[in-house]
Each structure stands twice: as C-alpha cells, then as structure tokens.
Specification:
851 residues, alpha/beta, Anaerobic Ribonucleotide-triphosphate Reductase Large Chain, 6-stranded mixed β-sheet, 5-stranded mixed β-sheet, globular, disordered N terminus
C-alpha cells in the first residue's frame, strides 16, 4: 500500500476534505437535546435500537468454558492453561451479527451483556447476587444487570474451584498489616483494588504490526522463533511454553474471526433484500480475508481493529483498552480507497460512526461501589487519539482527524473517549473543528499537549519516535502504543489524607479511643501513620512541611509495596498470551507481557487532592504562623469538631481573605506545587515488578468524591465527607468555590505546576456556561484559552458545557434529561446516571466566563 504525506503538511491553509465543513457548528450546550444527529439513516436507526449502559445481562459462557479448560489442563504451565482457556472461549462463545450493522464483533455475548472473569475472583459477584446488589436497587440505580437463577447457580457452582487460583487470593497474603491498613481493605488512604478484581488494561496494541503481518504473518513469526530454541538452555524451556501458548491463541483468534465470516455468509444466503444481502456477503469476505491476511481496504482494516480489540477484552477484562492513533494508522487505507474508487468518503464516515456504536455495544460487570464512585458504565476507557505530531516531527493532521471529530458530533454517545493532540503548530482549521465539537457539550473530546507530553515521556527512557507517536489511554495517560505495558491508573492516593496525618501525629482527626466507627487506627496507642507531631505543637511552618514530607514517604512506600505485590500475582495467575501477540518485543523476547516482555514497563498510581493540600498549607502558613490570627491547636480543633461552634473561622478559611489555589496567587500556587512535587518525589522511577519503574500521575477521575467520603473535615474549609479537590482543579467546598478570578487565572495557576513531572498524566476539568462559549467570539475565546494552555505547558484539559440551572433541572427531573452527557473526569457519562454526590460535585465546579 502506498505511503503518503498528510494533506496539511504541504499547505497549512488547505481546507480538510470531509463530509462536513471544518467550521460547521452544532449548537452550544446542545448535549442530549437532539434525537437524530447523524446524516446517515443507518446510524440513527442503530443508535435508536442500542440501549444505553443501563440494564445489561450477565452471561456465564466464558466463565464456564474457562473453568472447564483449567480443570482439563491442571498441571500444565500457567501460560498454557491461560492460552487454552482463551482458545476454548473464542471457539465456543456465541457470536452475533446484527441487523443493519457494517462492522461485526462482540465479547461472546449479546449487546450490553457482559461476560464473567473468574480468574479475578467470583466471591464479590456471587455475594452481590445474593444480596440483591447486582440488579436495580437503591444502591445500584444505573448500570444494573439482570440474570437468571440458572446464571447465579452456575457461578456459585464454580466459585470454590477458583479459591487460591484468583488474583485476590494470591496478592493479599503478600501484604503486611501496615500495607493492608492503608489500602482499600483498611482505612482507604490509597485505593488499589482495580487490578485485584480486573485486568490492568490501559494499553493499546500495535495496529500497524497487525496490518503489516496479519495473524497469519504473526503465526509465522512465532514458528520461526520456536525453531531457534535450544531447550538445553534453561531460559529456552520457559520460552518454549510461551511460544506454544502464542500459537494456541493465534490459531484461536483466526478461528474466531472466521466464525463471523461464516455467520454473515449464512445470513446472506437467506437475506431477500438485495442491498443488505450484498453487505452481508462483503462482511463475510472481509472477515474471511483479515482472519489471516493484512487488510487491503478501509472497511477491512476497521473490521480487523474491532475484532482484534474485542479479543483483548475477552482475554483480560482490562479497563481502558484503547484504539491508538486512529487517524494515523487508518489514513493510508482511506487514501488508497479514494484513489482506487473502492469507497467514498461518505461511506468511510458511515463506517466510523458504526465503529463508535460497536464500542458502545460492549459492557462490563462492576461491583455496586465502583459504579457509584465512577458512574462509568459500558466497557470503560476505550480512548481513541487523533492529531498531534508524527514520528518524524511533522504535524499529523489529516482528513480522518476531522472525520473522527464529526463522528463524535453525529453520534453523541459516551464512546470512544476521544483525545485530540495539540502543539504549537496545530492548524487553525483543527482548532475550529475542535472548539465546535467541545461546544456541543457532550464532554468530548479532551485535549492533550504534545509540547509537554513528549518531553515528559522522553524523561522515562522512551525513544523520540515512540514519544512522538504516543496515544492517550483511558482518561489521560500517555502511552507508547503497542510497546508499553504501563499499568496506568494503578491506584488512587489521597494526598489530602497525608496532610491530615502530618498535622495530627499520624492519627485521623475523628479517631480516638472512643471512635464509634470501625477504624484500624482507633484505640489507645494505635496509629494509622507514623508519629510526626501535631499542629498544636509545631512552632514553625517548616515543621509542618517536614511532617508532611515524612508521612508522604511512609505511605508512598506502602503504596509501592502493595502495587508490586498485585503485579507479581498477575504474573503468576493471569499471563496474557493473546495480548503478547500484539505488543512489541514479547515474541522477540519470548516473554509474556505481564512478566516484562514489552519494550516499556511502568506502574502509574495517581495522587489526588493537591488543591486541598495547597489551600490547607496556605491556611496554616497565613493564619497560624504569619498573621497569628489563630493558634494551630485552635485550627485543628475546629476541623475535629467539623467546624461546629467555629462558624466565623469556617467562613474565613472559605473566603477571599485567605490565599487559595486557582487565582494566579503565587502564595497558594507554590504550596500546591509543593504538594504535587512531594508526592511525585516519592513515586517517580522506583522499580516495579516487571523490570520497569513507577511514574506518578495527578488526577482523580471521580475518586475525589469517594476519598472525601472516607475523610473527616479538613483545615482548608471542607466539612466531613465532602469531596476533596478533583484532579488539578481548585477547591470548591459546599460553602464556597475557592477559584474566583476566571479561566485565565486558573490556567496560570495550574500551569505553574510541572505537568511533565507527572508522566502518568494530569487532568484539568473546566466548566463553562453555554452563554460564555456562544457565537464566534465564544468560539475564539475558547481557542485562545487552549492556545494559552498549550503555550504554558499544561498537559491536558477537558470541558463541561452546561449551566448550573440545566444540571439542577436534570437532577430534579431525570426522565427529561436522559441524553444529557457531561464530563466527569477523563470520560463523559449521562448526568442522570451519576450518584447524587458526584452530580453535586460537578454542579459545584466553578462556572466560568470570559468577562
């Protein structure tokens, strides 16, 4: 296939070729307000038939097949056992080809249904079924699942088999009491449960390798490696098992794709409508060809992308399996089809929109607590990246960049999670298209800044070409596609809780010998953290900072220990032979991706609450040590009392009279930077269990609400159980928002942080009223803000465009606002499906204007 230069490389003033003008407007704050938005009747028809994330069905086919296989291959190497389980699943799960669709593929179950992964444990699923927490209830008001009595009995029947063979059972015994006490199994200073109960995910495969070789070429590559083995060498004995596993899953993947070809052929034989019959025959031909061979057309390529990615989900249950730089790897097929007349631009746009819906079809079972925290239904985290620099350093904008954005505007569903890469030379036309799609108000897309992300990735040892070619996975994490097993989003660490312990001698503010709630740090002589003194005893602000530093090191050590233990459990229990087919260096090294076979290996936990800590430190420094308006003991006592009886002080710390982060105020901004840097200092470049290193992130997704719910009042003006600050954002307590000087001030405050140091990603939420972004002036103000953020080296931004009144109406009348999408944190979700606490948090974000 011809390689071509991108259209914008030659003339930055050239207009993109797409079915929509680059400056088309779809309205401002129009999310959920229009029923049909796509110009393609087929797309609108499929959208109307496709359920939202609510009300899926739990199916047991995968769980039963894998269990049967593990029993059959007991005693085999674990990677062989896993490979045979994948093979049995791909060869035997049900497959579906739906009416009207042009792209086929599913997770071995019907639309919105979800398979079960016993490798990560069945106890929680069975318990939620027994307690009525899987279906609709007051504790699970959305993303609920129905299931038959037979389903429950089947899962209960295999539960005991998996005891001692799942990740939880292997990981937890590796942990000390102190590590457990700080984790989600104790006081919850850090939450590290994600990769105990599901796969790590947060990656994207090498689609270019798949396109070049096809599964047939990959099979040949494995066979050549096997022929080179010398099994008199100890290391080659384990490599032999690895390559055997690779062949098993490679053959199974080929068979899985051929099953869709055969099914489409069967449907075509009985189809009486001529156009649909022709479509089904082409779907059958597409699947037959790409089962082993490199794709030749855009339709074949996008079909292979979907099927290959489905199998990753079916093997690993990983969150945030992402689709890489779609406009780059698909562009040669797009141009080739146009030149040969194989497909029109309009048809390829229609395929893109069908592709978006296929991602939306997929579903995952989560526990009710996770659903309430994240409000993130569906498969979760299917990010897709467009724009940005190419490997050669030139701008990569092309027609597909615009067409992907148009597909988001046309479908207005929560998938994919679109990331647009910007840099200092991004074409004006793309900025206009981007601004107009943002202004719709679905929360899509998010923007990323090449000018800070690429240097940040270079600092962790990736090659320049790999850094320039980065994708965004999940919410905000930069990643070298097909080369990196990054364990992004590995845990959430409460920086605000560290400050609480630092000023209260290692104890929680509400805890003591008579604490009425269960808490492992309660009781005489019991400590959650180390003893570092109390604010009531400190005589200088430096003592506060020293205590904060000591507590941070102590708890970061515990976090790293827990994550490495879970990582070791994954290597022992859940190798990923199929994923290893499509990640660089695994086949060359003869090592599974979970054991360090990928080119790059990282672990990325994120710190939460830097705004809360920055404002807390500013309050202490200003009121206690500089102005001496109150003693440290009095300030600590006010927080312990949840501000009751201290109302004037509560009003003061929430007022403009105290320095606050988010207002371009160096006093508070520098202390917020210190909070972020202290966390990063004790995480960055520590060794992980795969021969790589840790890299910190600063974002919360929606976990700032959950972490705040586990924490007592804090000295910057929170009351007990209120959310802590989200991501890179400023504090907004129930009393008052602390950022009062508008978007420019926020931009300046946030970009005083060294975003590049948080190599696992940063996240900044903006919320604008539709009025602020209306008209050409509003559009151009938004573009100017994006330009400033890029120039000042901010890494990431995302936008909610909805006014407070609309959100309050939606909260009160959810039936009338079912289609209203908002930006949560890294992803969009239907507002009415969020928990009341998360809805309040979004409503409470400062509503910005350019006045």
């Amino acid at each position: 296939m011809d390689t071509v230069n991108n259209t914008f490389e030659k003339d930055l003033n050239a207009k993109p070729c797409a079915i929509e003008p680059y400056d088309k407007e779809w309205g401002v704050g129009a999310s959920g307000m229009m029923e049909e938005t796509s110009p393609f009747p087929r797309v609108n028809k499929i959208l109307a038939k496709t359920q939202k994330t609510t009300n899926g069905v739990i199916v047991t086919d995968r769980a039963l097949l894998v269990t049967e296989t593990y029993k059959k291959y007991a005693g085999s190497p674990q990677i062989i056992k896993c490979a045979e389980g994948v093979s049995s699943m791909l060869r035997n799960v049900p497959i579906y080809v739906y009416e009207d669709e042009l792209i086929v593929g599913n997770l071995g179950c019907d639309k919105k249904a979800a398979p079960v992964f016993p490798e990560f444990g069945l106890n929680w699923i069975v318990e939620e079924m027994e307690q009525g927490l899987m279906g609709y209830s007051d504790k699970r008001t959305h993303d609920y699942f129905t299931y038959s009595e037979q389903t429950q009995n089947e899962l209960t029947g295999i539960k005991d088999f998996w005891k001692g063979q799942c990740i939880e059972d292997v990981a937890v015994p590796l942990l000390s009491d102190e590590e457990l006490k700080g984790s989600h199994m104790g006081k919850g200073l850090f939450l590290a449960a994600s990769y105990i109960y599901s796969g790590a995910g947060h990656l994207g495969i090498n689609y270019e390798k798949l396109f070049k070789l096809g599964f047939g070429g990959i099979r040949k590559q494995i066979q050549e490696k096997m022929e080179q083995l010398d099994t008199s060498l100890p290391e080659d004995i384990s490599k032999k098992a690895f390559y055997q596993a690779e062949l098993i899953v490679c053959d199974a993947a080929i068979e899985y794709i051929l099953r869709f070809s055969r099914r489409a052929q069967e449907l075509a034989e009985v189809e009486t409508e001529p156009i649909r019959k022709k479509e089904l025959l082409q779907i059958a031909a597409n699947c037959d060809w790409v089962s082993e061979n490199p794709p030749c057309s855009f339709w074949e390529a996008i079909q292979l992308v979907h099927l290959a990615t489905c199998i990753i989900e079916m093997e690993s249950n990983g969150h945030s399996i992402s689709y890489g730089r779609f406009d780059q790897y698909m562009y040669p097929y797009y141009l080739n089809d146009l030149r040969k007349g194989t497909a029109t631009r309009e048809f390829m746009q229609e395929l893109l929109e069908c592709f978006n819906i296929k991602i939306w079809d997929m579903n995952k079972v989560r526990d009710h607590v996770s659903i309430n925290i994240f409000a993130n239904g569906g498969i979760g985290g299917p990010a897709l990246t467009v724009g940005g620099l190419r490997k050669d350093g030139l701008d990569g904008t092309n027609d597909l960049t615009f067409m992907v954005l148009d597909a988001i505007a046309h479908t207005r569903i929560p998938t994919p999670w679109l990331a647009v890469r910007l840099h200092g030379s991004t074409p004006w036309q793309l900025k206009v298209k981007l601004a107009n799609v943002i202004r719709i108000g679905t929360g899509e897309p998010k923007i990323f800044n090449d000018d800070v992300t690429i240097p940040s990735m270079l600092n962790y040892g990736r090659s320049l070409e790999d850094c320039r070619d980065y994708q965004v996975v999940g919410c905000v994490e930069p990643d070298a596609p097909g080369k990196e097993y990054g364990w992004h989003d590995a845990a959430y660490f409460n920086i605000a809780k560290v400050l609480e312990l630092a000023i209260n001698n290692g104890q929680c503010l509400e805890c003591g010998p008579s604490c009425p709630r269960f808490c492992q740090c309660a009781g005489a002589g019991m400590q959650l953290g180390i003893k570092t003194g109390s604010l009531g005893e400190f005589t200088s602000f430096d003592q506060v900072l020293n205590a904060f530093d000591q507590q941070m090191k102590y708890w970061c050590d515990k976090l790293v220990s827990v994550l490495n233990a879970v990582d070791i459990a994954h290597q022992a229990i859940k190798p990923l032979p199929y994923l290893s087919l499509l990640m660089d260096d695994c086949i060359d090294n003869g090592v599974d991706v979970t054991a360090g076979g990928a080119k790059y290996n990282f672990t990325g936990p994120q710190g939460v609450g830097i705004g809360t800590v920055g404002d807390g430190l500013a309050t202490i420094k200003q009121l206690v040590f500089e102005e001496k308006k109150i003693s440290g003991a009095e300030l600590l006592e006010a927080a312990k009392k949840n501000w009751e009886g201290h109302e004037p002080l509560y009003a003061l710390v929430n007022s403009e009279k105290v320095h606050h982060y988010g207002n371009d105020d160096d006093y508070a901004d520098e202390l917020t930077k210190l909070a972020m840097d202290t966390y990063c200092k004790y995480i960055e470049k520590r060794p992980n269990a795969r021969g790589g290193v840790f890299q910190p992130g600063i974002y919360s997704v929606a976990v700032n609400v959950a972490l705040g719910g586990l924490q007592w009042a804090s000295i910057e003006g929170r009351k007990a159980n209120e959310p802590i600050s989200d991501c890179m954002g400023a504090v907004h307590t129930h009393r008052a928002a602390h950022d009062l000087n508008g978007p420019t001030a926020i931009c300046k405050s946030v970009t005083k942080m060294d975003h590049g140091r948080a190599a696992n990603g940063t996240l900044l939420n903006w919320k604008f009223s539709p009025t602020a972004l209306s008209g050409q002036t509003g559009r151009d103000n938004l573009i100017a803000l994006l330009d400033t953020y890029v120039q000042r080296k901010g890494m990431h931004s995302q936008f909610t465009v909805a006014n407070r009144e609309t959100l309050l109406k939606a909260q009160a009348n959810p039936e009338e606002y079912k289609g209203l999408l908002v930006r949560v944190a890294g992803y969009s979700a239907y507002f009415v499906e969020l928990s009341k606490e998360l809805q309040d948090d979004i409503i409470g974000r400062s509503e910005l204007s350019f006045d």
